[in-house]
Amino acid sequence: MDNHDARTTLVVGATGISGAAICRAARARGSQVLGVSRREPTVPGVQHVAADLLDDASVRGALEPLRPSTVHLTAWVRRDTEAENIETNSAVVRRILDALGPAGSVGHVALMTGLKHYLGPFEAYAQGKTPDTPFHEDEPRLDLPNFYYAQEDVLFEAAARYGFTWSVHRSHTVIGHAVGNAMNMALTIAVAASIARETGRPLVFPGSAAQWNGLTDVTDADVLADQMLWAASTPAAADQAFNIVNGDVFRWRWMWPRIAGWFGVEWEGWSGEDRPFQTRMAEAAGVWRDVASRHGLVEQDVERLASWWHTDSDLGRPMEVVTDMARSRAAGFTTYRSSWDSFRTQFERYRAERLIP
Fold this sequence. Notes:
Mean pLDDT: 93
Strand content: 5-15%
Domain PRISE-like Rossmann-fold: 76-357
CATH class of the largest domain: Alpha Beta
Pfam families: PRISE
CATH topology of the largest domain: Rossmann fold
CATH superfamily of the largest domain: NAD(P)-binding Rossmann-like Domain
Order of helices and strands: EHEEHEHEHHEEHEHEEHEEHEHHHHH
Protein name: Nucleoside-diphosphate-sugar epimerase
Shape: globular
Number of helices: 14
Low-confidence stretches: 1-6
C-alpha cells in the first residue's frame, strides 16, 4: 500500500467514464471515496455528494463540510463557443477549490484535461499550426483561447493560495464505461457495429485518410485512473503536467478490421472521402429502438450511448496523433495497456451489461 491508502478521495464527475474509473481504483486501494455528481454513482462504496457545479451556493453547501485529502477533477461542461467554455469551466474549478481549500485538508489536486491542449479547442480543432507529434508536455501553449489553459491557471492560483500540490493529466480519447457520456468512442463504435450487424451493412470507418493511415493512441480509463492516483501520492509527480495514454500505438487500418471481426461484420476503410457517423447515423434512433426491443437491451435511447459528433471529431483529424509518455515514465509511472485489449474488454462488458446485443 502507498500513502494514498486510508485517505479520503473526492472525485468530481464520479459518474463519467474517467471519474467512475478513479472511484473504482481508489476503492480498490482502500480509500474512502466521495463522488460528486448529479446522479448516484454506480461504483459500490462511493459516498454520493450531490452538487450543481454551476451554482456557488450549491457547491459551497455540499463541499465546505468535507475534508478530503486528494481531489480529482474530471467534470466539464460543454458550451457553444470556446469563450463560454472558458468562462464556465474555469469557474467550476475555482468554485470547487474555493469551497474545499480554506479548511486545509487538501494535499493534492489532480485535473484531467486532454490533447486539445495541443490540438486547440473544438471550434479551431487541429487547424492552423499545432506541435509536431509526438506531443510533449513542455510544448508552449497555442495562441488560441482554450478552456484547458484557463482551468490550469485557476488550479495553479488555488495551489499557491491554499498550499496543495497539483498535477494535470492530458488524456487522448478515453476508452471506458459510462452511459449518457458526451464523449465515449468505444461505446459509439460498439453501437455502430451492432447496427451494422443487425442491418446487414458493413462497419464503415467514419474518419479521415490521415487517421486511417497514420499512427494514433488512446487512453484506457483505468490507466488514467492509475496515473491520477499515482500522482496524488508520489512526491516526484508534484506540480507537473503529464500526458496519459496506454503506451502503445496503432493505425486504424489495423484496428478497424479487428473491431469488425469481434462483432462479426464486414468493414470498409477510408475510400477517398470522409464518411462521418453524424451523417450515416441520421436514422439510428429508430433503428436502435427496434434493436433494443428485440434483444431486451437496457437502453433504447441511442443518444445516451453513442456520441457520433465526438467520435467524428477524433477520427476526422487531418493529422496523426501520437503522445509522448517520457515524463511520467521517468518519474516512475509504469502502467501499460494494449489498446486492442482496451476496446475488446469494453465490448465484452457492454454485452454482459446488455447495452449492446
